[in-house]
Structures are given as structure tokens and as C-alpha cells.
Protein: Heavy-metal-associated domain-containing protein
Organism: Dokdonia sinensis
Amino acid sequence: MRITLFIQNLKCSGCGKTIVSALKTVPKIESTSVSTENNSVSFNYEEASDLNLAEETLSRLGYPVDGTSNTLLKKATSFVSCAIGRMK
């Protein structure tokens, strides 16, 4: 199944690179794309547990799904993730 998630703290293509790279390591998550214009990430997944793992990965990177908690720590983490993505 394909899903598009709207996420928080997405700022630039550096963020997008970090997200794509991290989701490549999640089993059964494929064809990931990021839209900085829409603050969204799209990907294919097989089961609900795969989707949950992808959402947890996004949150850990500092990009929680819209409607979920966006703490100061997650906002700060997103800046670090962004900087890492810019260096790739």
C-alpha cells in the first residue's frame, strides 16, 4: 500500500535526504519520496506494523507526523537531522 504522511519540522532538501536514507533501513518500506512543499513523505508499506515503525523512525529523527506530539527536543533533533542530510 502507498501512503502519504504529513510531517512536522520539514525544512529543506537536507531533511528530505535524511528521511529517505533512514526509511531505506526500515524493512518493507520502499519507494520513499519527500515533498518539502507539502511537508509530506510518501512510501509503500506492507503491514500496519511497518507503517508504525516508519512513523516511529520519523519521530526519532525529529519529524513527527502531524497531529502527534512535537516537543522542543524533536524540533532540535530535526535541525541536527537536517544538517546531516545537507552534508550527504
